[in-house]
Amino acid sequence: MEETSSMKPKRKDTTEDKYRIAATIAFIVVIVGIGVPMWWKTTTVYRVSLPSSAILRLSEHPIKTVVHVSIYTQQPDRAQLLITELQNAFKDSNVWIMEFKQLSPFAKAAEAHTPAALEKLLLQEHPQSVGDFMFIEWPKLEDELLLTTERSALMRTDVTSNKMAQLLHSKILQTYRVNQILSTDERMGIKSEAPQPDYDVVISVLNPKPKITNAKWNVVMAAQTYIEPFLAQISDISSYTVRTQWKYRVALEADLKQVRDQTKLGRHYALQESALPHLLTSIAQNLSASITDKPVINLVVYIPPCSSAPLHIYNNKNQILTRDGVDAFISPPWGGFIIANPPERVCMAYMNDEPAMQYYVNTNDNMQVMLDQLQKLLDISSEVQVSGVKTVDIEQLAPRRWEYESYIRRSAIRHIATASNTLQSLIKLLDQISYIVIDDQVGTAITKSHSDILAAKAALLEHRLLNASALAKRAFVASERGFFDASLLAQLYFPDEQKYAIYIPLFLPVMVPVLSSFNMLRKLLQRKRKEKQP
């Protein structure tokens, strides 16, 4: 009887140990096998896989651009000599891959009595594509080289290859601007921003005292006649929305100095060049017609009241800066400013205390100045002067073809360079800060931008300028969208150190029973092992 009673406690202890071991293992499995992985998963920063190494290697493959240049001379040997010398001049270029082509003389060329007729015949025999250029020899030429409004230049029979190379570098290719874009040296000068995909062009007419200066102008029709057709011709890079507005009682905060002269009015007013930035600051806050997230190009026409008219701009040497009867200036990238002085007869009536005389603002004069300002603000026009080279004046609303295609080429290179720098900066930032979220939207933007950069580089090498421009623009937009995406800031101020500082006090009390269970389980197993030993 005593044996039976001593066995019962043993069986009871064994059963309790089994339950205790099972509960301990279940507790450990729930905490370690389910709780820890779930915590790890929910606290892990989501990051899409990116082509980081490929993006960082973008700088290893510089931007190269193929340019086709044709040369026509009456003597084939001379054309071949010029091509050989030009190839030597461009062989060390880091950007341009120049492909020169000799155009052989043909029978119909003798029938051309004007340069335009000769160019037309050459284009029929040798059609050009976007970005091409042609030198045409014309013996009856005063200047060494004459740049036309198309993709050609007339050259004299004695022009040298050095002069032709100088023209290509300074005007057609604008190498100095491209070097500024690609250079990492800050001493190269101030770099303008890459062209944006959309712009608002706001034409503002300021008439501070309409009761004194009764100016009339259909500025809407003027914009539709001059500005909108011009912008439509250059819409390959950016889209433009034109708006017009009249502003009254806008004060011109500048010190004006009265200057005596020999006109009927007997005086005019001087606006110092040094005061122009302050002038723009004083009127800028009154120009916004509506809130927009697009960059704005302001084109301002200021009509001074007769009490301070005519108004002219003077430099620091007290010299008047009026050119061709126009007082105007630009301030990139803000916009342009034109002073439209009232006619003398209107101000004479004012000085004689007569009723305000109605007059109409000269549309053609102001719009021509505005078009010139737009070309400079958009960085289309080439201001470099080359000795012995003359440029044909523009007689149409569209810019010169070679000038605009140079702008397309330069914009493509700028977009590629800017997008590459943006992506590389973003990748370096993401590698340094591991807790920045990279969601699918950002990952798609970065990946598409990278692929478009490679495609744009390939298109430049294949002489597909318009295609390269479109791809480069798309790469630029995608890189900007990825870089400035708001989701990148989601956990920027919640680093890993702060995460551990929050979660360790929370999970440490839970882990103490787990560690105790491990210790108890170890002791039970040791005791079981001793009981089994003989």
From TrEMBL:
State the UniProt keywords alphabetically: Endoplasmic reticulum, Glycoprotein, GPI-anchor biosynthesis, Membrane, Transmembrane, Transmembrane helix
Chief subcellular site? endoplasmic reticulum
Membrane topology for this entry? Multi-pass membrane protein
**Entry's transmembrane regions:** 21-40, 500-521
User: Key word Manganese present in the record?
Assistant: no
Pathway linked to the protein? Glycolipid biosynthesis; glycosylphosphatidylinositol-anchor biosynthesis
What is an example of a Pfam family matching this protein? PIG-S
Can you say where in the cell this protein is located? Endoplasmic reticulum membrane
Homology family: Belongs to the PIGS family.
* Entry protein name: GPI transamidase component PIG-S-like isoform X2
